[in-house]
Specification:
Blueprint (H helix, E strand, L loop, with lengths): L10 E5 L3 H13 L5 E5 L2 H8 L15 E4 L8 H9 L9 E5 L4 H9 L4 E4 L4 H18 L7
Parallel strand pairs: 1-2, 1-3, 3-4, 4-5
Helix pairs in contact: 1-5, 2-3
């Protein structure tokens, strides 16, 4: 008799307002089959609504994503404020957050780490470099890294 295995849903939350960067990120994640689901939201307010099951996400499936890829410069609520709220909430703070941004500003890097970001990755300009960077990020955080229990 074949043994049944329960496979935990691996959900990645991508918070990105630039349509081209969103498509490139999704392409890279799909090429590696790194998650059962990649949920895309386009601003910080949507990200927080998802994480707190509010608004249009009120009826979403329970559980936290195994990874949040978070842009820094977002409409409505910027990435630093989203990060601040995630890392100050006992139910969310263990979710790995990777800042995936075009900003090389020293204060953005410092502020992100002070708030508890797990990694800060500057988006490469080159298409292939961008794909490779996202593949490596996804491989580590969604496959190699062991997420906290109860997510």
């Amino acid at each position: 008799m074949e043994e049944l295995r329960l496979v935990k849903l691996k959900r990645i939350l991508l918070v990105e307002d630039d349509p081209m960067d969103m498509e490139l990120t999704l392409t890279a994640l799909e090429e590696r089959n790194l998650a059962n689901e990649v949920l895309v939201v386009h601003d910080g307010e949507e990200a927080l609504n998802f994480l707190y099951s509010r608004g249009s996400f009120r009826m979403r499936a329970p559980g936290n994503p195994v990874l949040i890829l978070l842009d820094l410069k977002l409409p409505k609520v910027d990435g630093l404020e989203v990060l601040r709220q995630i890392k100050s909430d006992e139910h969310l703070r263990t979710i790995p957050v990777v800042m995936l941004t075009s900003s090389r500003e020293e204060h953005d890097v410092v502020d992100s780490y002070k708030l508890g970001v797990n990694a800060y990755v500057v988006k490469p300009i080159d298409f292939q470099d961008f794909l490779n960077a996202v593949k490596e990020i996804g491989l580590f955080w969604a496959v190699i890294n062991e997420p906290p229990p109860g997510g």
